[in-house]
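Subject: design request, 128 residues
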């Protein structure tokens, strides 16, 4: 059997917490402020919402980039970085990087056809 709480300060704190919980559940979420994790995701000004939007945008960009890269080079792509309208592709093979450099203008045209107008230049870097 659990030990009975007899400390009056602790009993008062528990009582206030319980009352606050009941009051908050009756009122529902505050207008204009997130109250639960789900509210943080959908709250228009929330940090979590902003993070999720950036993540989804990066996933979309990655999908578009991988679609325009020829299939024989996709395994060599180890990552990318988009910074100030410049796409940097990180390639793990020097010969694949050289071949991609020859077709980077075509890649840029294909990316723009797919709606990625924000990319102004493509650089290709060898990473080991």
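Subject: RE: design request

Done. Sequence follows.
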């Amino acid at each position: 059997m659990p030990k009975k709480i007899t400390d009056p300060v602790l009993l008062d704190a528990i009582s206030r917490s319980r009352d606050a919980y009941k009051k908050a559940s009756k009122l529902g979420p505050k207008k204009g402020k997130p109250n639960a994790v789900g509210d943080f995701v959908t709250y228009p000004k929330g940090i979590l919402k902003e993070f999720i939007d950036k993540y989804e945008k990066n996933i979309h960009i990655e999908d578009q980039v991988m679609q325009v890269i020829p299939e024989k080079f996709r395994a060599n792509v180890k990552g990318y970085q988009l910074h100030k309208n410049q796409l940097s592709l990180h390639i793990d093979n020097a010969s694949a990087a050289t071949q991609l450099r020859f077709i980077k203008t075509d890649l840029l045209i294909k990316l723009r056809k797919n709606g990625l107008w924000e990319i102004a230049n493509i650089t290709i870097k060898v990473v080991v």
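The longest strand covers residues 77-83.
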